Amino acid sequence: MTATLILTHFNELFVPNDPGHPLRGKEMNEATVLKDAYVAFQDDKILAIGEGEVPAELIGPKTKIEERRGMVATPGLIDCHTHLVYGGSREHEFSKKLNGMSYLDILAEGGGILSTLKATRESSFETLYDKSKDLLEQMMIHGVTTVEAKSGYGLNWETEKRQLEVVKKLNEDLPVDLVSTFMAAHVIPPEYKENPDPLIDEIITMLPKIKEENLAEFVDVFCDAGVYTAEQSKRLLEAAKKEGFALRIHADEIESIGGSTVAAELGATSAEHLMVITDEDIQKLADAHVIGNLLPATTFSLMEDTYAPARKMMDAGMAITITTDSNPGSCPMANLQFVMQLGCLYLRMTPTEVYNAVTINAAYSVHREKTVGSLDKGKNADLTVFAVPNLDYLLYYFATNHAAEVYKNGKCIVKDRQIVRA
Predict the structure, then answer these.
(1) Cα distances (angstroms) measured from residue 418 to each of 89, 135, 304, 324
(2) What is the pTM assigned to this prediction?
């Protein structure tokens, strides 16, 4: 079989291992880096990778060959925790944060997620679609080819459904893969503040409808101080599991109240944030093979000192990812490359660990490991090309968009940091 497109002479090509499970512990620091490398596509699939001159058997009469000297490449980047769809914005809270007001204090006075809740409920499908499309295209320009997207700014059936329908439509319209998560248990609205249990009951009644309309693959819940207790979170996730959803949980972001234990007991795919996780709970997640989705840009944006203990997690044998947490309040951004750089600077991860965290491990986190996340033959031809001399440089020279090209399913969707319009 001959290739349709071959990109040649990359300075370096990052090639993750895929042993059939997320990379755990020491495995996260293992990968192959090819020099003077080529990547061959056969239409929308990876056909071959290698070093040096391209084998003659890969070249046919219609094969297009292009050089990429002075550049490096990785599998298409995967952003596996975002709050993509929402109304309004929250820049008016910025000064409050700078003056020392905490996230929970802003929430208590009706700001934070509650402010976005109001704006999202008041936004039409078209308004949400246009706003989310702009944000998604910013992610693409920074090298992302697969995105997890949560609801959670409606907290009622009508608005939650509208958010998920926006995700579904974006997945149809844009050349990226979107993975949808239902997160109506994101915050407790004022009318349920004294007793959130009836709201949990209401959300549980939504699950069959979400499943019937194929609007989400995952269910998530915010288990933390001032939000949902471990008991409430477990009740919701148990119901979701019975309906056939995969599970995620926001846990140990502000206080450790048992969310990681719930994730381990129920076999969640991932636990998110984990900034204040205990050593005991790290071991529980490691033993249960729960992926830790870490969000260092949120800690950075909140001006906190407590970053998730990535090194402890890997030493305990956990698999971890790093991801943006793109959202309107605690992390208004679309640059996964900056998060990767924070992974080195604040989580003390090696470059190899960082690249694995946003490729193969992130693919497992969104249940797309059979099609994306590595450069194995037959996987989707997703590739991010960076205009840097080597892989270390991308993480060393921070706060800059180094992505020169992005390929999704063998087609160039970003060129010279601009969206390629069909």
Answers:
(1) 24, 14, 34, 21
(2) 0.97
